[in-house]
Amino acid sequence: MFIISTSINLRHNEKSQHKMAHKAWETFLKFHHLIGITLVALAGAAFYLNHSLNYWNVVRKSMKEEKNTECDFFSGRWVYDNVSYPLYNEEQCSFMDHIFACQKNGRKDFNYRHWRWQPRNCDIPRFNGKEYNTTIGFYWSPFLVESNCDDYLNHRNLDNRVVKIEAIEKHARHWNDADILIFDSYAWWLSPNKLLWGSFESPDAIYKQVETKSRPYEMGLSTWSDWLEMNINRTKTKLFFMSVSPNILRGDTFRHCYNKSEPIPKNLLPSKRYHLMGVLEASLENLRARGINVEYIRITRMSEYRNDAHPSIYRATIDHLSEENKKDPTTYTDCLHWCLPGVPDIWNQILYDYIMKS
To answer: Is 81:117 a contact under the CB 8 Å cutoff?
Structure first.
């Protein structure tokens, strides 16, 4: 009968099951021990990874903050400072042109001399020109290329301006050996000009009246760019180009400079796009692609606030005006040039820092 046998087999199975249960428990303990070790390892790895990520996040944040705190000279505000400014007095400057001598020309309010430009995250460094054994030359070439306005003393009353749009050598031969060249050409392109191909004396010369402003400016900058590429010593000569000095048209009553004694508040100045700036910036970008770096000094926006710092009616040429014109000051105010000391001194301080860093 199979009942006994079954009973014996049950006892044997109980022993086997007990052994198997013991082994299973050992295996279970070992498995849980392994899981525990694994979890600890994973926790350690997660902690290390999290610590590493936190570390690099801190590094990236620090780098970003450092980048954000780099000095942007052109982002800031005008601060009234009658302790440090002006940097000099008008009568102390023997080189000053009468156009900029507003005090000599009768201006009585002097607050315009006490405004200092304060960048957002830094200060503009000061410099003393006497510390450097340097020769500075001013070269008059309003169009960069040749024109019939190239006489510095006799060019203001020319009604028929002619620009030799592809000729630059007469001027550029004086630039060859310079260590630093700082260019500025904008305001003279704002009026319609007659372009010339050929010489002034040649009967075969071609003249063309061009009413648009951008195309002649583009052509003039192209001639200038070609000369730079062919002649400039790229390892020696540092190149700079000043952006537009704000020109305030008579119809712009908000920016007009007549009878203004304080800067325009920052929150009240709307943005303005100077069309020819795009032409200039495209030209500089094109030069960069050709391996010539021209540092662009963006003084336009910071200068726009200072409609109080122009000569306005305090200009030397007022005696030449008709009595009819004198009755309406807004018809002869000078909102293009600047009183000195004043805004251009800030430009020079910024330019100095660019030169030293280059």
So the answer is: no
Instruction: Please work out, in degrees rounded to the nearest 5, the angle formed at the alpha carbon of residue 37 by the alpha carbons of 36 and 42.
Output: 95
Could you tell me if 144 and 171 are in contact, meaning their C-beta atoms sit under 8 angstroms apart?
Answer: yes
pLDDT tens for 116-161 read 999 998 999 988 878 888 888 999 999 999 999 999 888 766 668 8
Residues with Cβ within 8 Å of residue 178, at least 6 apart in sequence:
237
Rounded Cα–Cα distance for residues 185 and 245 (Å): 10
pLDDT at 318: 61
In degrees, rounded to 5, the angle at the alpha carbon of residue 230 between the alpha carbons of residues 183 and 353 is 35
State the residue for tokens 């372009």. Answer: 195
Q: Tell me, what's the pLDDT at 291?
A: 96
Say how far apart CA 304 and CA 343 lie, in whole Å: 10
Q: Residue 224 and residue 219: Cα distance in Å, rounded?
A: 9
Asked if 278 and 219 touch (Cβ cutoff 8 Å), the reply is: no
Q: How do strand 193-197 and strand 238-242 relate by DSSP bridges? A: unpaired
Whole-structure pTM value:
0.76
Euclidean distance between the first and the last CA atom of the chain, given in angstroms as a whole number: 110
Using only C-alpha atoms, the chain has a radius of gyration, in whole angstroms, of 37
Among the listed residues 167, 180, 170, 101, the one whose alpha carbon sits nearest the alpha carbon of residue 137 = 180
Nearest to 283 by CA among 345, 323, 227, 343: 227
**Which residues of the chain have a pLDDT value below 70?**
1-69, 156-159, 248-255, 317-322, 326
What local confidence, expressed as pLDDT, does residue 20 receive? 45
Write the Ramachandran bin of 291: left for phi over 0, alpha for psi from -120 to 50, otherwise beta.
left
Contacts of 103 (CB under 8 A, 6+ apart): 90, 110, 339
**How far are the Cα atoms of 97, 217, 218, 298, 345 from residue 356, in angstroms, in the given order?**
27, 30, 30, 17, 17
CA distance 85 to 112: 10
User: Which pLDDT score is estimated for 21?
Assistant: 46
Return all residues near 297 (Cβ < 8 A) that are at least 6 apart: 240, 241, 242, 243, 347, 350, 351, 354
